[in-house]
Structures are given as C-alpha cells and as structure tokens.
C-alpha cells in the first residue's frame, strides 16, 4: 500500500523546466549562438517548438529545434537591437504532457544580426502553466462527440 502511494505521487508529476541557456533574467553582451531549455523529464522530439523573439518582435532562431534527452535547443542568428529577448517553448514530455512557457534574457549591446520574419502576437502569450490551444480544441471536440453519442443512444431507446 505504501509503495502505491509513493508511485502515485511520482506518476502524477509532470515535466517542468529546470533551466535555460541563457538563464531566465540573464543579461548577455552578444548572441549566445544556441538557445536551450532543460526539463526534469525527457522530451518527445517530434513535438518540440522553440523560438527566440527580439525586442523588435522579429524571430532570431535559425532552423528547427532539436531534442536531446531532456533538453530542447535551437541555433540563434546574430541578435539585433539591445533589449529583452523571449525564448518561447512548447514541448511534450515523454509521458505525453504538453508544457509551454517563456524565458527572457536581455541583450545589453546591440548586435548586427539581420532579423527574421515578424513574430505573431501568440509568440508572447506562452506561460509555464498555460494550456495549449490545440488541447482545448481537442477536449471540446471530444466532449461534443460524447454528448452526440449520448443523445443518439437516448433517442434510440425512446423509439424502441
């Protein structure tokens, strides 16, 4: 019985960020070259999303993110204007739990990097406790399917 209680607590835990490079709140004087976020669990590589958005609201990451164990990373171009840069992430842990959030680092000296495309407004709305929009849509669709099935069963019982 005691073992069941111990394992129940472990099974209920979800993946959470444990650090980033640059660290949240860190000030740097040049582009880090690579940005990464680490978690307390391994990640599913096929669902990783990681962007770097500058104070000018442009992307600065280069290419797709890669996952190695519990860390997601992406190469970063030379950065542009001095100011706050957002590291936005959305990953799925090995247990299937989605995690999204944001880390901020500050560039103290303007770089000569060329900005990428303009980021959309959704790039700055991530939070550690947020629930991904696709999951909300999936839940709503599932509830509607269950309700539709229940109505069909009730109608068949009445007509029989």
TrEMBL record:
Q: List the Gene Ontology MF annotations in alphabetical order.
A: copper ion binding
Q: Does the keyword Signal apply?
A: yes
The UniProt regions of compositional bias labelled Polar residues, in chain numbering, are: 17-29
Specify where the region named Disordered lies, as residue ranges.
Answer: 9-33
Keyword Metal-binding in the entry? The reply is: yes
List the Pfam families hit by this protein, alphabetically.
Answer: CopC (PF04234)
Q: Where in the cell is it found?
A: Cell envelope
Taxonomic superkingdom:
Bacteria
GO BP field: copper ion transport; response to copper ion
Question: Could you tell me which residue ranges the CopC domain spans?
Answer: 14-106
Transmembrane region positions? 131-155
Keywords, sorted A to Z: Copper, Membrane, Metal-binding, Signal, Transmembrane, Transmembrane helix
Q: One GO cellular component from the entry?
A: periplasmic space
- In Swiss-Prot or TrEMBL terms, this protein is called Copper resistance protein CopC
Species for this entry:
Gordonia iterans
Per the UniProt record, the lineage of the source organism begins with: Bacteria, Bacillati, Actinomycetota, Actinomycetes, Mycobacteriales
């Amino acid at each position: 019985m005691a073992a069941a209680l111990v394992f129940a607590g472990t099974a209920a835990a979800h993946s959470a960020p444990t650090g980033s490079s640059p660290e949240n709140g860190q000030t740097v004087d040049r582009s880090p070259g690579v940005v990464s976020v680490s978690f307390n669990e391994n990640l599913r590589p096929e669902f990783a999303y990681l962007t770097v958005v500058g104070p000018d609201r442009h992307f600065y990451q280069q290419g797709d993110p890669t996952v190695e164990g519990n860390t997601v990373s992406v190469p970063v171009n030379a950065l542009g204007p001095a100011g706050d840069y957002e590291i936005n992430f959305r990953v799925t842990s090995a247990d299937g739990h989605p995690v999204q959030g944001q880390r901020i680092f500050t560039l103290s000296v303007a770089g000569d990097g060329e900005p990428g495309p303009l980021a959309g407004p959704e790039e700055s709305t991530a939070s550690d406790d947020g629930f991904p929009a696709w999951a909300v849509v999936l839940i709503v669709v599932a509830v509607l399917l269950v309700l539709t099935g229940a109505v069909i069963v009730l109608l068949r019982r009445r007509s029989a």
